Amino acid sequence: MCTTQLRVGHMLLGLSSSVGENVRMRIHVLQLAYSDDEPVAERVGRVAGLVRAQEGADLVVLPELWAPGGFSYRTWAERAEEADGPTVAAITAAARDAGVVVHAGSIVERAREGTCGAALGETGRGLWNTSVLVSPDGGTLATYRKIHRFGFGQGEPTLLEAGAEVVTASLPGGVVVGLATCYDLRFPELFRALTDAGATLVTVPAAWPAERVEAWRLLGRARAIENQFIMIQCNTAGTHAGVTMGGHSQIVDATGAVVAEAGTAEEVLVADVDLAAVGRWRAAFPVLADRRLRPGSLRRHLIENSADPTTRF
Prior knowledge:
- The protein is an alpha/beta fold.
- The chain has helices at about 40-50, 75-80, 85-100, 155-160, 190-195, 215-225, 275-285, 295-305; strands spanning about 5-10, 25-30, 60, 100-110, 125-135, 140-145, 170, 175-180, 200-205, 230-235, 240, 245, 250, 260, 265-275.
C-alpha cells in the first residue's frame, strides 16, 4: 500500500471579477500512485477512503484514468463503465460523506445500453475518456469528454471517441471552473475558450509520464499566464503498464507562479487560494483586453485577404 504524504502551500497573490472579494478555496490534489498489481476494485475502495479523509476541502481533484490505468490501453474496453458506474458511484458516495466537491478524475466511459447512431461518436465505438465533477450532495455538476486524444495513431485515437464540447461548471460561491484533461494541455485554444466561458479556475487531471514531466510543468504555467486564471494540475505517480508516471502535480496562480507542487510519490497537495486575486490581477495587468484575434476573426481575415477568393480555411 502506498504511503500518502501531505504537502501544503499558500497562495500569496491573493484573485474576483465574477466572485466576491474574499472567496477563498482550499484545494486538495490527490496525486495517486498505483501499479498493475493492485486490483481495480481494491484501488477504487482505497481511493474512496482517501477522498473521505478530505473533509474540510472545498475542491478535491483526482488524476486521469486512475481506476482503469492511464496507460493500460489493452484493458480499457473491459474496464469501461457508464458515467454513473461503480467508480463514479464510489467517489460520489465518498464526496457526500466528506461534504466536498470532487473532480473524480476520469474513467473510460461506455455508452449506455441501447445507444445508437451518432450518439456513439464519430467512429461508433461508444467509448470516451470522461471526467465527472460531483457535488457534496451526491449530484453531478458536470461531465467532460476529453477532446484531444493522445497516441499519434495509437492508444486513445484508436480506442476512444473524441469529445466535442468545452465544459465549465459553477461551484459554490459562484466560482466558474473549466475542465480539461492531460493532453489537452498542449492545445492553448481550448484554454482560451474556457476563459471566454468565464473560467477563473481550470482543473487538469492527467496520466503524464516522467519522461515528459518538464513539459507538464511548463505548459501548466504557460496556460495560467496566457489566460490569467488558476491551474489545478493533478498528475499520477508510480509505474503501471511499464510506464513511469511523472508526478509533480501543481497549483499555479494567475500570474504563473507555482503555489504548491508535489514530488514523484503519492501525496495530497493542499493549497489555499483567494479567488478575488484573479480579477485584481486581470485589472492590474489587462492583457486579455488587448486581444485582436478573437474566434472567427482570423478566419475572416484570411479569407478576405486570400489571393484565391475560392480558398476556405
